[in-house]
Design a protein that fits this description.
Blueprint: H1 8-26, H2 33-40, H3 43-52, H4 61-94, H5 109-112, H6 123-141, H7 145-161, H8 174-192, H9 210-220, H10 239-252, H11 259-266, H12 268-293, H13 301-322
């Protein structure tokens, strides 16, 4: 489904984030240590921020949940099943041990374990759905901004403090959703303030912010991983990411349309759902080529990265054409009939 008046810089930011995620999933140490920490301090928080920028209440709670189910839960189920089916077929039909041993319990991963066997990055979609629903509910029960923000920060602190307790450390990622909500709300407030439109008179000054921002991040960044519950002190969970997100948002508004990054960003949900499979296939292909042509030389991670990105550029058009209702391009669940 074609959307008009897209904000190119938003696609750029989403593309930048998902490309970083792909790189980290090829090798956690693909960048030098300090750069790793810089990037980890904002790459996932910025995704929540971008989602918050487009938060709408639509036509009531039922319609809101229906839309979020179409855009988040349906792709989650589709990519989870796709990954499991591909692994199962590769294991039994092709004896592809390099993909990892097949386990039938993987189909039950979403309700059994926090870390999935074959496509762990899909956790983000569950937490994003929860963030959307929780924020909608909080808007209804706490309409005043100050009180609502105080409650959100209190919930985030409780989740951060008690994150190892069973109530939080479970497959539903409630701790992650509560700790991520401030990033989401930041995006919503940027939208409410009218900052998402381009060509504001102060936009051009965003070009000057990138250098001091990078210097700041280099010296003060801390590792943030909302999935494995590896977070810094509570204030550092938000102060540095907020500065980084707003600085990159301001800078990105000046970015031109960069075809690969903006294309990847526009369809980032496809990349999120398929890049783990693509990494395994491209890593195997790179190992085979290296063994034949370079006498088994070590496979370079950046070569694999380029192969994965290239494969995603081919895969995206196929997926959105064949499965538009399962990749958030069209609605699977139609609006419910209105009572006359």
């Amino acid at each position: 489904m074609e959307k008009k008046n897209r904000l190119v810089y938003v696609d750029f930011m989403k593309g930048f984030c998902i490309l970083l995620i792909v790189a980290f999933h090829i090798d956690n140490d693909i960048f030098p240590l300090r750069i790793n920490l810089m990037l980890q301090s904002f790459r996932i928080p910025m995704y929540y921020f971008l989602s918050g920028m487009f938060f709408k209440q639509y036509d009531g709670f039922v319609d809101f949940v229906r839309r979020k189910t179409n855009n988040i839960i349906v792709p989650y189920v589709f990519f989870m099943l796709l990954t499991c089916v591909v692994h199962c077929v590769m294991w039994y039909a092709f004896s592809a041990s390099w993909m990892g041993e097949w386990e039938w319990s993987s189909f039950a991963d979403p309700v059994m374990r926090r870390y999935y066997h074959y496509n762990t990055p899909l956790w983000f979609l569950i937490s994003l759905f929860e963030v959307n629903v929780l924020y909608y509910v909080l808007l209804q029960i706490c309409p005043k901004r100050l009180g609502r923000y105080a409650l959100i920060m209190l919930l985030a602190f409780v989740a951060w403090y008690f994150r190892k307790f069973p109530i939080f450390n479970n497959p539903m990622f409630l701790d992650t959703a509560l700790m991520a909500m401030p990033y989401f709300v930041l995006g919503s407030e940027v939208k409410s303030a009218g900052f998402i439109a381009k060509n504001k008179k102060w936009d051009k000054w965003g070009l000057l912010v990138i250098v001091p921002l990078l210097v700041l991040l280099y010296f003060v960044s801390s590792k943030i991983n909302l999935l494995i519950q590896s977070e810094p002190k509570f204030y550092r969970l938000y102060v540095v990411p907020f500065v980084a997100i707003l600085g990159l948002f301001w800078f990105s508004k000046n970015m031109p349309k960069l075809p690969v990054i903006t294309f990847i960003g526009r369809y980032s949900i496809v990349v999120l759902g398929t890049h783990i499979l693509m990494i395994k296939f491209m890593m195997r292909l790179a190992e085979m080529v290296s063994s034949v042509m370079f006498n088994g030389a070590e496979v370079n991670n950046w070569v694999v990265y380029a192969m994965v990105v290239g494969s995603e550029m081919v895969l995206i058009p196929i997926m959105i054409r064949l499965f538009p209702k399962f990749t958030a391009q069209e609605e699977l669940i139609k609006p419910f009939a209105q009572k006359q």
